Amino acid sequence: MPRRIHRSEQRQARAAADLLPVEPSGRRSRLRRGGPRTPLPLLPLIAVGAGIGIAYVSQTAHATSSTYRASTLAADQQVLRTQYQQLQDELARLQSSERIVAAAQQLGMRPASSWAYVTSHAQAGLSSSSTQLTATSGDALQQLLTALNAITDSGDTAR
Which of 48, 55, 122, 145 sees the fewest Cβ atoms within 10 Å? Predict the structure, then answer.
């Protein structure tokens, strides 16, 4: 158990301390005032940590906005696919022969009582005499009419 110091002993110790000579030191003792100081070597580490934190938050925000945009585009694509399918169905309905026949009958058209066929005859190329156009005439319309007359004349002779 530690020994207890009596008051009388405390007084004697103070008196003895007062008798000792006090040497003034060349330096003044510094008493610290204010809050704790940040050690200077830690400032770069704090700056790097803050930079990493800001970069992380920025990347997270960018990823979130990209994910939102991708989900929005996927929903829009689904809507467009549905509209495309509806338009394809409507186009098929409008192109159906029953609908075309009904529309024609409303306009006063009647179905044909008998079928008529048009046969095509293989035509030989234009004859060299009818296709030779004179360069002296110079009238392109006249040359075209001459060529068309030659074609129709050869079609009439085939009948």
Answer: 122
Measuring CA to CA, which residue among 152, 156, 125, 131 is closest to residue 143?
131
* pLDDT over 90 at 156, yes or no: no
Q: What is the pLDDT of residue 131?
A: 47
Determine if the pTM surpasses 0.90: no
Q: Which string of DSSP letters, residue by residue, matches 85-114?
A: HHHHHHHHHHT-HHHHHHHHHHTT----SS
Question: If you search the block for the tokens 């529309």, which residue do you land on?
Answer: 103
> 126 near 144, Cβ under 8 Å?
no
Assess contact for 127 and 154: CB atoms under 8 A: yes
C-alpha span between 22 and 127 (Å, rounded): 141
Find, among 118, 125, 116, 117, the residue nearest to 147 by Cα.
125
Q: Give the Cα separation of 87 and 117 in Å (integer).
A: 36
